[in-house]
């Protein structure tokens, strides 16, 4: 998660911000973007965080990346909520399921 105003490497911060803007164009279906599906996959493979300055979105994106890793390792998304190792992730998964059920109920 590199902020645009990244003092150690200003050009990296600018590039990261540009990728985030390009992703917004991609998501809207714009043909005027430098991103490709392959570039998105590569960025996501290093846990690139697409959201900028939105703590909730960044937190969600971080947990989503964690659940992807968990699934790759264990082959499922049934994270135990009582396990000390993955307690926070387990609670997040539980919350996502509850929110989905509520959404489906209308």
TrEMBL record:
Q: Which residues form a coiled coil?
A: none
- Tell me the ranges covered by the Helicase-associated domain, including all copies: 1-48, 59-102
Pfam families hit by this protein: HA
Q: Which Gene3D superfamilies match?
A: 6.10.140.530
Any idea what this protein is called? Helicase-associated domain-containing protein
Biological source species: Fragilariopsis cylindrus CCMP1102
